[in-house]
Amino acid sequence: MIKAGIIGGAGYTAGELIRLLLNHKEVKIDFIYSTSNAGNSVYQVHQDLVGSTELKFSSVINPEIDVLFLCLGHGNSKEFLSKTEFSKPTKIIDLSNDFRLEKDEVFQGETFVYGLPELKKETIKSATNIANPGCFATAIQLGLLPLANSGLLQSDLHVNAVTGATGAGTSLSATTHFTWRDNNFSYYKPFTHQHLGEINQTIKKLQNNFESEVLFMPNRGNFSRGIYATLYTDYTESIEEAYDLYESYYEKAPFTVISNSPIHLKQVVNTNKCIIHLHNHNNKLLITSMIDNLLKGASGQAIQNMNLMFGFDESEGLKLKANYF
């Protein structure tokens, strides 16, 4: 059994991470570090865990753990690691965007591998440090990997994706209050969202002749969790060939499901799945890709990466059922 530590234990992703690790047969949580909640019971913050654990938040860090999860705000992981040392065998999984781009992947002599298992499974298995992908980036990339891998992205890729309120984190802002979010819908960061860096980086790695644009419109939905993304681009082959391409690419991906029927968000909420549906119309391929932003888009994918890094079954601790009703 390995020992895990969590830094930044009070946020949404940390709460999901704790819940998953408590039910993982190969892991024991050694500490959950939170300066603002030190000494408090974990279930006082993550109230769904009442009756599940008596762990308390800690102000002390054990540097001798096997795996460290960083659940800090964007930009804070580098600062934390520059001030805190861990034992050489400690593996690090960072859930922020600090190490996702190639220009940032080497830090203090350590390399962070981009942790999208459907793209880099074999590299992840031997990695010491992982940069966990962003939630929008995960849904969108899983929707386009088979096309890019086969060199079939030949024109602009149009993306419209909606995320739930948990995508904004626990900090309050004008657009996260219930009175603003309820019965409401809006876009933000049109064509400039930070996850575009990851997405474009992956496309260019797989298809270096891609010179078109990824035109991404992120939206806020009036629900709590999940991402529903629709992508379309030029495609001259048949829908049957498209399905063959996707099913072949994801044949050994335990959490990516190709559906022949139209899909809806409740199928993935509270699971680590990505479900993809394809539709062809007048030489345009419409790809629908959806995930739970806190699980496959964050903590579930982090556990998936941990499983690969330590040689556990990839699905261990992640056989979760959708909250369908």
From TrEMBL:
Signal peptide as annotated in the record: none
E.C. number(s) listed in UniProt: 1.2.1.38
InterPro entries in the cross-refs: AGPR, AGPR_AS, AGPR_dimerisation_dom, AGPR_type-1, NAD(P)-bd_dom_sf, Semialdehyde_DH_NAD-bd
Function: Catalyzes the NADPH-dependent reduction of N-acetyl-5-glutamyl phosphate to yield N-acetyl-L-glutamate 5-semialdehyde.
Record protein name field: N-acetyl-gamma-glutamyl-phosphate reductase
Domain Semialdehyde dehydrogenase NAD-binding positions: 3-127
Organism domain of life: Bacteria
Molecular-function annotations in GO: N-acetyl-gamma-glutamyl-phosphate reductase activity
Keyword set includes Membrane: no
SMART domains: Semialdhyde_dh
Subcellular location: Cytoplasm
The organism of origin for this protein: Winogradskyella vincentii
Catalysed reactions listed for this entry: N-acetyl-L-glutamate 5-semialdehyde + phosphate + NADP(+) = N-acetyl-L-glutamyl 5-phosphate + NADPH + H(+)
Protein family according to the UniProt entry: Belongs to the NAGSA dehydrogenase family. Type 1 subfamily.
Keyword Aminoacyl-tRNA synthetase found: no
Catalytic-site annotation from UniProt: C135
Classification via Gene3D superfamilies: Dihydrodipicolinate Reductase, domain 2, NAD(P)-binding Rossmann-like Domain
Keywords noted in UniProt: Amino-acid biosynthesis, Arginine biosynthesis, Cytoplasm, NADP, Oxidoreductase
Pathway: Amino-acid biosynthesis; L-arginine biosynthesis; N(2)-acetyl-L-ornithine from L-glutamate: step 3/4
EC category: oxidoreductase
